[in-house]
Amino acid sequence: MDKGERSMIDGRLTGKIAIVTGGSRGIGRGIATELAREGATVVVNYTQAADAAAEVVAEIAGFGGTAMAIQADIGVRAETEALVAAAVAAHGRVDILVNNAGICPFRTFWEITDEDWDRTHRTNLYGAFVTSQAAAAVMRDAGGGAIVHVSSVSAHVGGPEQVHYCATKGGVNAMTSSMAIALGPHKIRVNAVLPGGVHTDINRMHWEGQPPSSPNLSVDRPGTPWDIARAVCYLASDDAAWVTGAMLPVDGGLLVRA
Fold first, then answer.
1. What is the pTM for the complete model shown?
2. Of 132, 151, 152, 237, catalytic
3. Which of 149, 152, 175, 245 could share a disulfide with 169, CB 3.0–4.6 Å?
4. Residue in 16, 46, 151, 165 annotated catalytic
């Protein structure tokens, strides 16, 4: 079943308010639309792609969902705090945070500059941390919530042109465990999904039109944003009420066969 077969709102997340960082394209767009199909009101965060974010909001409205777009660079604390404050001002609270925003500037080991390293860490790791701090404070005061980090199998299976990126995702995994412990007393669950090779714009440019093909894959196709989105919806929902600190690979079997 692909996204085109699900035009009705299912209701598992009805009444919930969700923020999706980097929600204007790729995996983030899939997550935003799937959360909305499950009934959540979605705040679609974007940094520069205003037109793409507007398209996501329009798509969600088209099947009867509710969404709004808010610009913020999550690597800047003041903008992140303003993002969360705007969501609360519009909807009264935040129940779900999906830390999806991330960058992966492919570089050989020798080509990685200090700027590459700092920018990747500021977006992928620091950005997830400060957004979580701001949203978790709101969740704590409201009695709980759910945070889902979008990490990567690259934290465990590195790539020759992703040293800086893999380091950030290893940090996200470690942060997931620690945050689950730190926020558990406040009834805030923290989990991560670890996508494998998903055919997004960033990967398409790197693969030059060739999706990943590996004998390690148990499922004979590349992943889609909606494969990841459905896992996020599970972790964000009450179906996962007893799940926290988990790191769920959604990778076609890559890790178990590696």
1. 0.91
2. 152
3. 152
4. 165
What was the pLDDT predicted at 100? 98
Q: How far apart are CA 126 and CA 5, in angstroms?
A: 37
Report the CATH number at residue 85: 3.40.50.720
Residue indicated by tokens 């329009």: 58
Q: Find the catalytic residue in 16, 151, 154, 169.
A: 169
In order of 199, 219, 251, the CA distances from 214 in angstroms are 14, 10, 12
- Looking at residue 219, what is its pLDDT? 61
CA distance 47 to 38: 25
The Cα–Cα gap between 170 and 228 comes to 18
Q: Which of the four pLDDT bands, split at 50, 70 and 90, describes residue 59?
A: very high
Position 226 pLDDT exceeds 70: yes
Verify whether residue 165 is a known catalytic residue: yes
Q: Residue 72's domain spans which residues?
A: 3-257
Residue pair 196/223 in contact by the 8 Å Cβ criterion: yes
Instruction: Please tell me the total count of domains within the chain.
Output: 1
pLDDT tens-digit series, residues 161-218 = 989 999 999 999 999 999 999 999 999 999 999 998 786 555 444 445 555 545 455 5
Contact 75, 127 (CB under 8 A): yes
Spell out where the chain has E strands: 17-20, 41-46, 66-71, 96-99, 145-150, 188-195, 247-250
E strands of 11-144, at which residues? 17-20, 41-46, 66-71, 96-99
3 is catalytic: no
152 is catalytic: yes
